[in-house]
Specification:
With about 220 residues, the chain is an alpha+beta fold. Helices cover about 40% and strands about 10% of the residues. It has a four-stranded antiparallel β-sheet with strand order 1-2-3-4. The longest helix is centred in the N-terminal third of the chain and has 23 residues, at about 30-50.
Length: about 220
C-alpha cells in the first residue's frame, strides 16, 4: 500500500507559506491525517523489516520520543523564529545509541527534497577519532565500503587532521566529519506503493558503512 500521498507534500508547501501558530492550529487535523499518522504507520511497519538488516536498528512508533522527529522547531538559538519545520523526518538509530549522532538511518520528506539513507552524522570527537583510526587500521575493509554508487557524504575538513598521514590512500576520507550515504527520491516515488522497498534498499546500501562505524565504536551489529 501507499503510506504517503500527495497531500503530505501539499500540507508542507502550505505550511511553508503560512508558518505561524494560528495557521497551524487551524490546519492541525490535516497535519495529523496527512503527515503524522502516515509516518507513524510507516515506522510501525518498517520495524520488523529493519531487523533483517540488523537486529540493532530500532524503529520506535511512539508519537512522542520515538523515531519521528517533532514538527516543532527549537528557535531558542536561531535567527529564524519560524515555529514549524517544513519537512517531516524520522531516524532509526542503533539500539545502543543515545541520540541522532549514533550510527543509524534517516528519512527526510519535503517538497522537492526527499532523501534517506544512513551512517554517522555529527559524531563527537572521540567517536570521530575511532572511525578514522579504524580506516587507518583496516584499509581493506574500508575499501570494500567505497563502491560505485555508494558515495560517502558529509562535512569535511580542508586538510587531513593532525595525527594522520596526509599521504594515506584514504586521506580524503580521513577529512570527513560525517560519514553517511543517502539516496534521493522524487515525490512520485515517495507516494508510490513500493516506497518502503526503496527506503529499505537505501538502508541496505548504507548498512556496510553503519556496520563499520558500529565496530569502530565498539557496538554490536
Amino acid at each position: 500500500m501507499s503510506y504517503f500521498t500527495p497531500d503530505l507534500f501539499k500540507f508542507l508547501k502550505d505550511l511553508k507559506a503560512h508558518n505561524n501558530r494560528t495557521w497551524f492550529e487551524s490546519n492541525k487535523a490535516r497535519y495529523e491525517e496527512d503527515v503524522k499518522e502516515p509516518m507513524l504507520r510507516f515506522i510501525t511497519d518498517l520495524g520488523p523489516r529493519l531487523k533483517k538488516i540488523s537486529p540493532q536498528l530500532r524503529a520506535d512508533p511512539r508519537p512522542a520520543g520515538g523515531s519521528m522527529f517533532r514538527i516543532y522547531r527549537d528557535v531558542r538559538f536561531s535567527r529564524d523564529k519560524s515555529p514549524y519545520k517544513t519537512n517531516v523526518g524520522a531516524h532509526f538509530s542503533h539500539v545502543r545509541g543515545t541520540d541522532a549522532h549514533a550510527p543509524g538511518l534517516y528519512l527526510h520528506l519535503a517538497p522537492g527534497q526527499s532523501f534517506g539513507g544512513g551512517g554517522l552524522w555529527h559524531p563527537d570527537a572521540d567517536a570521530l577519532k575511532a572511525v578514522r583510526d579504524r580506516i587507518v587500521a583496516r584499509p581493506a575493509e574500508w575499501k570494500g565500503i567505497k563502491k560505485p554508487g555508494a558515495e560517502i557524504e558529509g562535512d569535511a575538513l580542508k586538510r587531513v587532521p593532525a595525527g594522520y598521514d596526509p599521504e594515506h590512500v584514504f586521506a580524503e576520507d580521513l577529512k570527513h566529519k560525517d560519514f553517511y550515504i543517502m539516496e534521493e527520491w522524487a515525490e512520485r516515488q515517495v507516494v508510490a506503493r513500493d516506497f518502503m522497498d526503496r527506503f529499505l534498499d537505501a538502508a541496505r546500501g548504507a548498512a556496510p558503512l553503519m556496520r563499520f562505524a558500529s565496530k569502530a565504536l565498539g557496538l554490536p551489529w
